[in-house]
Fold each of these.
Amino acid sequence: MRNGFMTALLLSAVVTATLSARPAHADTEGHATFGSQWWTLNHNEAKWEEFREVPLGGFLESFSLHNTEGRRSMVLIGVHGMQRNQSTGFTWRDGATMRLDVNYGQTPHVFGRNARSSFSSTSPGVLSLPDSLQRHNQENPAAYVATMSDLLTTASRVEDEFRTDVASARFRARADRHWSIELRGLRRNRSGTKPFGAAFGFNSAIEVTMPISQRIVDADAVLEYRHQHLTVQGDFGVSEFHNNVDKLFLDNPKRLTDRTSATAYVAGDGSRSGQWDLAPDNRALRGTLGATVVLPRNSTFSANWAATQAIQNDPWLPATVNSAIADSLVRLPGTGTNAKSNVIVGDYRLTTRQWSRLYGAVRVHHDKYDNKTPQHVFSGAVRMDQTFEAGPFENDPFGNSNYSAGADVDFDITTPITVGGMYEYRHREHTHREVEKDKENVYGGRVRVRPVSRFSIRADYRRANREGDGFNEEDYRNDGGTLVEQPGLRRFDVADRKQDRLTSSVDWTANQNVVLGAGYGYTHNDYENSALGLQDDKRHSVSAMGTLSWNDRFLWTVGGGLEKVDTAQKSRESGATVVLSDTTSWNADLSDKNTYVYTSTEWWAKPDKLSLGASYTFSHARGIYDLSNFTSTAIDLSDTVYDLQDLQIEARWRLRPNFDIAGRYGFERFDVTDFASDDVPLLNVASGTSNAIFLGDSLLDYRAHRVALVATQRF
């Protein structure tokens, strides 16, 4: 049992002492909600506490403290005190002149509770195996499966989670009615582990827990000037990412020594260890400048510019740690990437209402990602520390630019009917892509109808047509002119596309006791000119909600929705040489369906004394995988199903005007069917020497019950 209950009592005592000692002219109020909880879980499933901590024993659910003395005020709030998902915020004000906000929060991310691994961490980023094990497996390859099975069965559990801590501060001050300044800072730390898939060649995939120790720091200074119809704002900021574990070094369980073959290397399991470069340190400087001018005749013009420069020059790792590959073959052209990019963004907008019934806007946007990274020429590459492939190879500094211009017009036909239209032109350019340029025209219309008071219907439809100016097939060929990609493949982000999008809603406030609403959304992306790749993408979403309050004593809310995504994809089957025949085609029709419902109610059975509340949510997610191929041998993957139910019941009794006690009961049920996560083995033997080592963390169905006694003290 954690000591949260005693800490909650201590906090209440401190608050009480503060109140008794405050000056007579100060005004202080607040609350503290604390209690003790018991719960049971039939399976130790990580999803139960994936992004939270469910306290067992005492807990401090929330607290607040508001103090006002003259023009100055202070607010302290917090939730889930002492838990791994805690959050605390502090605000101090001096009238409208100064304000200080300080916040701190934690968020866990639990991947698994039952992960097992035979690797030990000898230092950050280094995962090792005993030399005796590697030697035995190298000298007795036929016994590898049996040896590793015995080892993994008795392997110890390892941590498979990390936590994110975020601390932020913001200070705002106004020198006079024209000038103000704002200073912002944020620090984000992540520490722990997460699953990582490594590979020694193509025959030995290994899943391990990769250590995480990262820090992100952001700082900004904002200066603003306001005078009558003019507002100008400038911002300068810096962002820095630092990774304390920037590489992963892993022993190969199959070998103790590197194979002696030098140049005629065949992909396999020939090195005693492998290395992987992790996220590199980097830094970005940014600045923005914006201005807004209020013009005559109900018009406003705004312009915003932004510029960012990002740099990254983390030292390169050696090309390989495989001593069997001669250093002369893989000599690096430098010591680091020396990466640099510049981003320029501009946004301009004019809104106007020249007549009482007609209003509109004209907008222009442009941005450019200019990659200034120098080109490096590599004499060769070593794939997965196993295979040397002669070059030369060059890195391509990818970049892009975007330009768009559009206009919106809305007209009130009558008081209850408003219609509108829009047009937008988009132009994009890409560097080192198979499609260098494309353009897109977007048309749309919208309508809003208010037939009676407090009832409205809205609908917005848009049609977009994106077309590329040509296709560079040479980008799909290697230096020798041989195709390495299917020439009919079009990646969805640059492929020709026709898009239809509809959003609609209905809202009705019948009276102060009844509020109803519903919405529907539809998006269809048609890639009709793509011979291979994504062919079609359809998305539907439906939602509805209602609120009913018979009187001040009863409130009921109910709602739900459905989201459905269908995609059609096509590919071809090839071996070492790209096959262009349509007779080797594969098709995948994939569908995701998500359904959810929720309801909650609160009833004051005895006014200002006894309240009863309950809530229930249910979500059902299903994935459907329909596969077919030219030989009719494709087998559909099994459907995946994720069901989650959550029931909460609370009875609250107000003993005194400032003190409540409550009893709570909660039930949570999780059911999963997923071929990718059910019964994950520690060692998977596919065929022959093809095998993989996993952490063995499967998703498990679970049932959880919670009972809690809670008290709220207000002051």
Note: Residues 1-24, 262-266 have pLDDT under 50 and may be disordered.
Amino acid sequence: MNLAPDRLIAVINVMTAALGISFPLHLGAGGQSTVPGRDLFADGAVGRIRLEILAQGLESLRSDPRQYVRATLREGTNVFQDIAVRLKGSSSFRRLDDKPAFTVNCAHFSARQRFHGLSKIHLNNSAEDPSYLNEKLGSELFRAAGVPAPRASHAWVELNGRKLGLYVLKEGFAEEFLAQHFQRTDGNLYEAEAERASDVTQPLKRNSGSGNPDGSDLQRLAAAAQEPDASRRWTALGDVLDMDRFLSFMTTEVLSGHRDGYCLARNNFRLYHDPVSDKFVFLPDGMDQLFGRPDFPVQPHMAGLVAKAIMEIPAGRRAYRERLTNLLTNSFTIEALTNRVREWSAAMAPNLTRAEARMFQREATDLCERIRQRVLDVSRQLATPEPALVQFQNSSAGLGGWIPVDAAADAKLEKTVSSGRPALHIQAGSRAVASWRTKAWLEAGRYRFEGLARTAGVKPAASGRNHGASLVVWGRKTSGTRMLAGDSDWTKLQVEFEVSERETQVEFVCLLRGGEGNAWFDVDSLQLVRLEPKDE
């Protein structure tokens, strides 16, 4: 049987799909097969996309932005009609008449239609990433670590003739994406619920898959993560979770400071149940805010149940630490990462105006500096022996080792003496937030963080809320929070919190949030108190 190349490719795709196996092939120049979307995501690629939506569709997007409407997509002389478009985003969400972000589904209304071989793409407005590079950098870091991640590039976007500007063009979690990383694409693909924390113990939205629709596969993963016996839990998780990939997923989130992902926030992730291995693989998403805080702890409080379950197991912590060190050495080198950012920035320049190129260069330089600081701080943390658990005497323990964090250029943080007391002093700056911080290792239990503070002339900033001086336990739910503002004499502040992990590092913060004014925290009074367990 002699078939034309395009017909042969179509026959192969149909046959493999019928067997539950999918390796979508497409033809490039000369009739050679190519990876879908390869040209879209080449370094320096900047597409030009024009979207056209009729008046009825525009009104629908204004009233119900998450519902698909029909549209036409134009790219040069190529015209894609009857595609589906809707708005997307959570904190980055913008209304239609602003600079909205879009999900473009080419196959929603026309099953065979593809854009550069892809059935779905996203056009992200990068509202929270002025460098427009975090998503691309994050994608490359996860894939270098062996974790499947959508590719990203850039595009100029117009809507009905209105120039919206530069966007991040991102690959969708569709069949073509799965086929690049898995032998079969018919497993259940789950998505975290939008705008709220989600975990494997909750019903997750199933995007695709021919697996059991009742969520029984998720229930197996949740049960393994909640196994009370540590040794049995490690074995149970290994039976249902691709542990090797998850360790890389977890450590890459921490190394890159992806604080809005699964492990640290139970947000921005996908979960694929691979039918071949019968195991789950976590996939990263929403990587527009990376490398934000250089000193973020390498062994932080994990919010995601699966991450927390692993870190509570000695074998899990050892495996995590080994993977962290390995990735830092092989993937997170300052020279390699900053060179990539500079290469992307230089490749973008011909597509920008002179002013845009200068802005882009400034943001790229800032990202390079954040990368440098993060890698250096992680190296410092790993070189420091893990501290021992806090030792309490009569249920209390002092806290030391305070360091200044988040100081604006015009803020002032110093160790001084106030009213005869050794004190941590903060004078507010223009950024309105500054703090002193320290960390300590605690075992499971209930605690109170307390100390004395006083303020002088503390006034609210122009924006934001919860202004004043306070004590904070970073990333944990607390009760009893109080904030001092205006002028106040020495006042006892205290917050209660709970540690559910067997052993974990907790960060403590003496915080001032305000537009102007001063705060002092009495060093000798800052302490932890171990509380009795609550009555069941």
Note: The longest strand covers residues 486-513.
